[in-house]
Fold these 2 entries.
Entry 1:
Amino acid sequence: MGKKLNRWAFVACLAGTLVLGGLGCGDLGKVDQGRVIAFDKEKETVTFINDVKHDPANPDYSGAPMTFSLPKDPADRGEDPKAGKRMKLDAKTREIVIYDTGTQSMKKITYTLIDQKEKVGKDDPLVKGKKFPLVEKDKKAITIYSGRQKLLTTFSLPEEYFALPDDTWEAGDEVRVYYKEPGKSLRFMNITKTDIFKK
């Protein structure tokens, strides 16, 4: 366990060095992270939208899609990621940004607010044990929960958007890869589901 923890800690520290120090890694390789839009369990590949800011409090998923093969050694990879197409939920402007697989580009959609609750923690009865997004086509309503923003939001959209898959409104897991060759990760961390400090 200690060896595995040290590997993840190394990746985390390396990412911090790249982001905060802006230093080149040379032989150490590179680190990228972002939000997963596709995961192929059989081929063991993951595709994510690169976070161009690397700021956990204010991520910016506007980079190009990146696809990587996952490491073969279980000690070098975290939990399988959940994919989703929701990149951003802006409660102030009432806009949601999704990755449109049809056009392979970002799409900004203005929504009509139905209900919104703030400061909703993950253990709150409003969300604990419940599955989101909740798409109610008959009511033309979509309810999503953002754990990072602690925001539970129900909104309506034009009818054509309800033909899209439910994962359009779901945020994929945040992941990080360490690599030397493009497309081939040497280490993979599911940031959303991994606590590197947990023993």
Note: The helical segments are 2-21.
Entry 2:
Amino acid sequence: MNIELLLAYIQKKLTDDLFQLGLYQCLLSFLVACFVSVVSIPVVIKISELKFLMEKPGVRSSHKQATPTFGGIAIFAAILISYFLWPAIDQTDIYRTNLSVVGMAILFFIGIKDDMVGIDPNKKIFFQILPSLILIFFGKLRIDYLYGIFGFYHINDLFSVLITCFIFIAIINAINLIDGIDGLAGGIATLASLTFGGWFLLTGHFSMACLAFTLSGALVGFLRFNFSHTSKIFMGNTGSLILGFLLSFFAVRFVNLNNTYRFDPTSFFNAPIIAIVILIVPIFDTLRVFLVRILAGRSPFSADRNHMHHILIDNGLSHAAATLVLCTMSLANTVLFFLFHRNISNTMSLVILIGMFFVYMAAGVLLKTMARVRAISKPRRKGLFVRQLLSTVSRKDMLKYL
């Protein structure tokens, strides 16, 4: 894709009446979803407090007090209300978006059960596969073209179904795994949904664009409380499952459409690489954590504090600062890729991403070492401070205060 052609295309689109209508609908969907989220979350918090539906701090927790974990309920409600409030402008994807709501509903109830009483991991995977297969078979949504990556182009139906299903499971669990500190999963998902939504809007897929902007609006309203000190709430598994499912839907449809419209000025010959870059933080972090656990001889699904956000927190960063670092990394990688991707093949782009992943691994090792040094030296610094303080106080003064 040529940047100059894209800018000219956008200027032309801005004068198109249908595009303007779609843009207004997306902006209104964003605002309504944000409003519904902001209004409904205090109600969810109040009910959670009255019914003692709170998550207590644990060994791996980054919070210090019991906190409601049902923010996903408000996110789900905000998406439903703001998305179905307007008539569909285009009919291209309306059936697929409706099927995605069916998938969200399934994951919504599974997430609530998981947040309240827990759920068997095998059942959880099954109910992640089920909504994915609904979109794959009923919505005919699948990755059947690999854009020449390692010489592969068109693939048969069996492999396309397996690859698409794997993408859904991988992204759903990746979003679930990075939901460990305030604002991270919500911030990454907001950036990703706005990026995908912007492209859907430009290409006239208004149903997809409306759903993407609705999700981002619901998350902006949620983040206002997720960062709050007095009325904090977590999205819980309910929210992270919904986020992961919708982002998977956007990513697969983005790759799928760029193959269909690859001669359009807005199409990308490297759409799969772009989808990976947009979701680079959850993908890299999940791969890194799994690899570290396997190399340590443990199950890749065992719990620990090896996520990058945990390492940043252990190095003294606040939740907001750690989230800002990782969201900035995601945004910077996306912008840089759009600026410098022009003459690079998809195979070479993937090789570069693999190299970046090993740099990410090395950064994790370095930061983990720094965190350990900080943990060891901190008690020593405290002890030195106490000794210095005592040396300045006379025995007479000490007896007086005792």
Note: The beta strands are 54-55, 67-68, 145-149, 152-154.
